[in-house]
Amino acid sequence: LSFSKARENHSWVADPERKVLVSMGGDFNELETVERFKDFVFRCEWRFPPGGPAGVNGSGIVVRARGVEKGLDPRGIEIDLRPVPAQDPLFGTGCFTAYGTRLRNPSGYADGVKNRHLGRLADPEVKPNAEWNTCEVECLGDRIKVTMNDSLVNEAWGAADVAGTICLRNQNAAIEFRNVRLSPVPSSQPSPVGEWIERRPGTPVGDRIRTFSADGKLLVYLPKSRQRSQGTWRQEGRRVYFRDNPAPDAEERFFDIKEFGSTHLTIMMDGKREYRWEALR
């Protein structure tokens, strides 16, 4: 992995003899990967070294980050790392913090703005600060799973299924990382390339859909309100067939893609009705 320093004021250094990445304190300090990743397994070892500052905010790993702005947290999903014994149901090691994105797990729902914190599924068995801990973060589709010291501590779904950078961050606590590795996972689904909103006459706000593509061709139509349905979808050329539920006798409907541009999408539903969708910015 190649990292760059995301902000001008930073305290990250590499220790070539110990093969360790070190940050000795300061706030809003991030190392950010040069490349972006969507589906992957990220592994590392981490510890709060003895003798360094141990701020209560600790550190974290931000995945699918979409930018770092001055004085603000990285936009993405952070896995909390906090000094022992700073463990809290919503803010401790292994908890999620959603910055500008949505996320859900058994502890609740984070909208990324007012409600950003999600508790963990199990308390991690974190070692004393001078000892090394292992962390594995798996991002597949809209799901994120976190394992600490070989035990599952958190899992969530509803994450934005988009590529982003990975940030190692520091918030007023000295921290070290080593054996940082990433294994990309080939995506089983096409990547989203746009989100569209339906404009019907007399209707100010309509339904939303997403478009997916590979090699520049529209592949799959997926209504946002039905993303978790068990319906089936298949495409033949510019015609998309779909069923809203998996029952064998469910009606199969279709629509034809008439126009697919950067600002609009026009479809003909069931060969009868034309619908125009505008790009949602």
User: Which geometry do the CA atoms define?
Assistant: elongated
Major sheet? 8 strands, antiparallel
Mean pLDDT: 76
CATH class of the largest domain: Mainly Beta
CATH topology of the largest domain: Jelly Rolls
Total count of helical runs of at least 4 residues: 0
CATH architecture of the largest domain: Sandwich
Uncertain segments of ≥5 residues (pLDDT<50)?
Answer: 188-197, 201-207, 210-229
- How is the quaternary structure best described? single chain
CATH superfamily of the largest domain: Exo-inulinase, domain 1
Helix content: under 10%
**N/C terminus separation:** 32 Å
Instruction: Kindly estimate the percentage of residues that lie in beta strands according to DSSP.
Output: over 45%
Reading side by side through the largest sheet, how are the strands ordered?
19-18-17-24-23-22-21-20
Structural class: mainly beta
Using the CA coordinates, give the radius of gyration.
22 Å
Helix and strand run: EEEEEEEEEEEEEEEEEEEEEEEE
**Total domain count:** 2
Number of strands: 24
